[in-house]
Amino acid sequence: MPLDIIIGTQWGDEGKGRFVDLLSRNAQIVARFNGGDNAGHTVTVERQIFKLHLIPSGIIHSGTINLMGNGMVIHPGSLLDEMKMLSDGGVDVTPKRLFISYAAHIITPAHRAIDKAMESVRGSGLLGTTGRGIGPAYTDKTARQGLRMIDLLDPENLMDNLDDHIRKANKTLESCQVAPLDIREIQEQYRVYSQKLAPFIADTSRIASDALYHGDTVLAEGAQGSLLDVDMGTYPYVTSSSCTSAGVLSGLGIGAYPARRVIGITKAFQTRVGSGPFPTEQSGQIALQLRGTGANPWDEYGTTTGRARRVGWLDSVLLRYAARINGLTKLAITKLDVLQGLDELYICTAYQKGNQIYTELPFGLSNLESYSPVYTRLPGWKSVDITGARTWGDLPAEAQRYIEAIVEFGGVPVHWISVGAERDQVIRMES
Ligand code: GDP
Ligand code: IMO
Ligand code: MG
Question: Structure pTM?
Answer without folding.
Answer: 0.97
